[in-house]
Write a structure and sequence with these properties.
Blueprint (H helix, E strand, L loop, with lengths): L4 H23 L4 E5 L6 E5 L3 H23 L14 H35 L4 E2 L13 H26 L12 H19 L1
Helix pairs in contact: 1-2, 1-4, 2-3, 2-4, 3-4
Pfam family, one: DUF1218
Subcellular location: Endomembrane system
Keywords: Membrane, Signal, Transmembrane, Transmembrane helix
Length: 199
C-alpha cells in the first residue's frame, strides 16, 4: 500500500485544527466572580463564558474523525492483508500503532473531561451565606494537556500510517497459490492409470 498524500493532508489538517481549538479552549476557560445579591446579604457566583466547552468538544470530534480515518485506511492493523513479519517496518508499525492509540485516548479524555467540567461550572448558580465564597472553575492546564497529546497523536498517526504502508505488502497473498497446481494436475492422471490397470 502506497502512502496517499491526500489522506496525509486530511489527517494533518484535522489534528492541527483540533490542536488550535484545544489551545483556544484553554485560553477561554470559564472564570467566575463573587457577586452580592441586591435583595439580601447573600453572595453567589457568576460565570462569564461557555466558549471553552464548545471548543473542547469540537476538538474532541475532529480528533476522533482523524483517528477513524487512519484506522480505516490501515484497517486497524488487524483486518488488513497482513504485514511482512520480521521486518523493521512491521515492528515500527506495531509500536507506533500503540503510541498513536495511547496519545489519542489521553487527548480525548482531557478534552472531554475539560469540556464537561467547564460546562458544569458555567451553568452552576448557587446562593450561600458565606462571605468568603470561592467559585470553583476548571483547573488550568487540562485543555493544554489535551492540546499537547493531540500533537503527539498527530505525530504517532502519521508515522504509523507511513510505517504501515511500507510493511503492508500483502504478506501471505504472494504465496497463496504456490504448490496447488502440481497436486491437482497429477491426481486425475493417477486415477486414469488405475482404471487402465483394472481393465
Amino acid at each position: 500500500m502506497a502512502v496517499s498524500i491526500s489522506i496525509l493532508a486530511v489527517i494533518i489538517s484535522l489534528n492541527l485544527v483540533a490542536f488550535v481549538l484545544a489551545i483556544g479552549a484553554e485560553s477561554r476557560r470559564s472564570t467566575a466572580k463573587v457577586v452580592n445579591d441586591q435583595y439580601d446579604e447573600r453572595t453567589y457566583c457568576v460565570y462569564d463564558t461557555d466558549a471553552s466547552t464548545v471548543y473542547g468538544l469540537s476538538a474532541f470530534g475532529l480528533l476522533l474523525i482523524s483517528q477513524m480515518i487512519v484506522n480505516g485506511v490501515t484497517r486497524c492493523l488487524c483486518f488488513g492483508k497482513g504485514l511482512v513479519t520480521g521486518s523493521c517496518s512491521a515492528t515500527c508499525a506495531i509500536i507506533l500503532f500503540i503510541f498513536s492509540w495511547l496519545s489519542f485516548l489521553g487527548a480525548e479524555a482531557c478534552l472531554l473531561a475539560g469540556s464537561a467540567r467547564n460546562a458544569y461550572h458555567t451553568k452552576y448558580r448557587g446562593y450561600f451565606l458565606k462571605d468568603d465564597l470561592s467559585c470553583a472553575t476548571l483547573r488550568r492546564g487540562v485543555f493544554a494537556a489535551g492540546a499537547a497529546l493531540t500533537l503527539l497523536s498527530l505525530i504517532g498517526s502519521v508515522l504509523y500510517y507511513w510505517a504501515h504502508s511500507r510493511a503492508d505488502t500483502g504478506g501471505w497473498e504472494k504465496h497463496q497459490n504456490e504448490g496447488v497446481g502440481m497436486t491437482s494436475a497429477s491426481y486425475p492422471q493417477q486415477q486414469q492409470a488405475g482404471e487402465f490397470e483394472k481393465a
